[in-house]
Amino acid sequence: PYLGYEIDARVYQNTRKFILSKDNPYYQESRDGKIKGYGSPHMQMRIRNNIWPMGQIVQGLTSTKLSEKLAVLKMLVSTDGGTGRMHESYNPNNPSYFTRE
């Protein structure tokens, strides 16, 4: 719906719920549970349990809950690996281990 396409709301919500859950094999959480998101199998050779900031951004953009949007922003700000920039992907337990400068 973010791009304006008509959707089946039930299918969309079920898909979103799956993608953002532990049922998704590419979904990751930090050990302390503060960082959450999904990554990709194609980056697993570099970072086994990676998260894509772009996925987190889409999660925030498509959320209808302010609390979720704020939580995503907090995760994005806290996972720059000390560079002040977002990266292609990062390890949720050690954001200083990331792909692409």
Structural descriptors:
101 residues; alpha+beta; two-stranded antiparallel ribbon; two-stranded antiparallel sheet; 3 helices; 34% helix; globular
SSE map:
Blueprint: H1 9-19, E1 27-29, E2 36-38, H2 53-62, H3 66-78, E3 89-91, E4 94-99
Antiparallel strand pairs: 1-2, 3-4
Helix pairs in contact: 2-3
Briefly summarize what is shown.
The protein is an alpha+beta fold and 101 residues long.
**Span between N and C termini?**
31 Å
Question: Uncertain segments of ≥5 residues (pLDDT<50)?
Answer: none
How would you spell out the order of helices and strands? HEEHHEE
The helix content, as a percent range, equals 25-40%
> What global shape is seen?
globular
How much of the sequence lies in strands comes to 5-15%
What Rg, in angstroms, do the CA atoms define?
A: 14 Å
Question: Which structural category fits the helices and strands?
Answer: alpha+beta
**Major beta sheet, specifics?**
2 strands, antiparallel
Q: Could you give the count of β-strands?
A: 4
Number of helical runs?
Answer: 3
Average predicted confidence as pLDDT:
92
**Strand arrangement in the largest pleated sheet:** 1-2
